[in-house]
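Record pair follows.
FIRST:
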Amino acid sequence: MTVYMRSLETAVPPTVLIQSEARDVFAAQPGLTRLGSRLVSTCFDSAAIDTRYTAVTELTKDSRADEPKFFDPDTGLVLSPSTKVRNDIFGREATKLFVQSAQAALDACPGIEAQDITHLVTVSCTGFFNPGPDYKIVRALGLNPAVQRYHLGFMGCYAAFPALRAAKSFCEADPDAVVLVVCAELCSLHVRTSNDPDTIMGSALFADGAAAAIISARDIPDGNPLLRLDHFETVLTPVGEESMAWNIGDEGFEMVLGNYVPHIIDDHIIGALEPLLSRDESLRGLPYRDITHWAIHPGGRSILDKVQSRLELTDEQLVPARETLRNYGNMSSATVLFVLKHIAGLPPRDGDERICSMAFGPGLTVETAMFTKVRAPLTGGSPEAAARDASAVPDAIPGAIPDATARTEPSLI
């Protein structure tokens, strides 16, 4: 049975962070050593990020709070609230992104109504609350209260793939299933000032965002799918368990992101791709760059550099990942869906357009997936109509704001 992604929409919160201005604030913190200050400048400047987005409205120079908890604009101090304070904000602000992106995905899927959704899979590793985001989406969108709900929590940057794989399995088991997958992360809730290199790197990379997709095998004449879901695979590298981790501390969640991670990926990326590519006879032995598109989770610039070099990919094949990193930073599980949306919006080419995708997370876990871009209606319509539909796909605009996004805060730290 063939399963398709019918829609894919993204959203970010309204407050914009300009990387150079955030760097200056973090580099000026009084508790930094000279080495720490140099590390801040190096990490922020080498991250290949221009802008990020945050749900923490305090992180603006113009913000004024009676009792600031994250940033005091009068003193320039980055503060360190408790995990409870941070998680309370997650419950409120993450709900907005979950609902916003989910509603956008539903609105972008002709032929599917809220009551058609049979399964809901939500994903996040940056906070917890219950009734959780799955419940909030059901209520806000008016889904059937009997919808099957699943939440994947605390898996990290690769979690969109287990969610999509589960959605594919639901659809293969039930041809009438319609699955809504929603990832939302508020990584910026957990930033802090520190001399620790891992903490500094996290502050330089991570950001907030959400993405939602509708997955189904149904024949829906009113709408054309974006992508065909082909295969998924999971690989654990033999080393790296201590190099990437995500722990809960008293003052927020604590990132472990060792500087050896890019080297681990460099050493093991070929082996990690082998199980995925071996499932398709047409891809066995094919040079990696001959696969049209590469949707790589931009965990950081050095990770993208290592993947491109090891697989001998072209600069063009890295554009979706690098543009996502440059404009949005690393939004954990949602990020690779931003990359896939960029690719789905590119003008169609001749022939099958395969997409090899991968994401990395604690473990060290490598999740891989193979998709195929769909360029014409599955059923009905003339060849002329199919050609018109294909030509109507808009070009991806680097730095474009997702349709589901409302940004209002112009001032930044």
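SECOND:
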Amino acid sequence: MAIESVGTGRPQLLPIVGLLLLETSLVVCWSSGFVGIRYAIDHGPVFLILLWRTLASGVLLLPFALLIGPKPRLAEIAKHLVFGALAMSGYLAGFAIAIARGVPTGLVALIADMLPLAIAMLSLPVLGHLLNGRQWVGLGIGFLGVLVASVGSLHVGEAPPWAYSMPVLGMLSLALATLLQKRFASSDMPVHQSLCIQCFAAAVIFSAFAAGEGGIAPVYEWEFIIGIGWLVIVATFGGYGLYYLCLRRSSPARVSSVLYLSPPVTMLWAWLMFDEPLSGAMAVGLVVSLSGIVLASR
């Protein structure tokens, strides 16, 4: 990223510092989503948690979406309904189900945040971007790192084998939404409006699954309320809001690469809060995958 000079000859650092602050906040808030789900599943069914996370987020954003910003066109609303189904329903359900089934939280974050690899793979069909040899090597190294971390975690987790595929599917869903949004979405709609639409789209989908899981009524316990509040304020408003802000100011490759810093943060949170083990294989897999991500995303 080039640094432009002003008349005094000093570099204009404010835009770069601002972007770095946004990206640092994004890592913290994005990691909180995994930890928040891990906390909340002890106090309610997984789809009920996801329903009230997205519904409460949409309701809180609705007055601002109606009163602040341009009036959304129907075509733009339709686009963000699709993005919400992919970026929220698909992604959140993928890693939440995995955590609920016993996959270690840090490993879920590692798999789910292999987003740069998914974006690289989907760039050809969505954006028409071809991968070069270095990127293919990076994809292979990143995948190898996930395998190392996954195999090492099998003896510390209690999840069925199929549960390990759920964050992969969720990650692919978010990658597709990211590329589609970069290609088709207009930047005219403010983030709070687009996020509101996407939250309601996800809430409708989650309500159907929550009804089949036992009902859509919330759990009237403080632990459930605290968990939903955490997921709404920090993970949804902070995580998704910062994600879309960074995506508008930077490229999908850079934003998804920044998100890859969240797995070690998530692993540390899970160890401190829930005493989840930090295995050597998970650490090795993290380092191997990170090297593949750097290679593929340059």
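COMMENT: Residues 24-297 form one domain.
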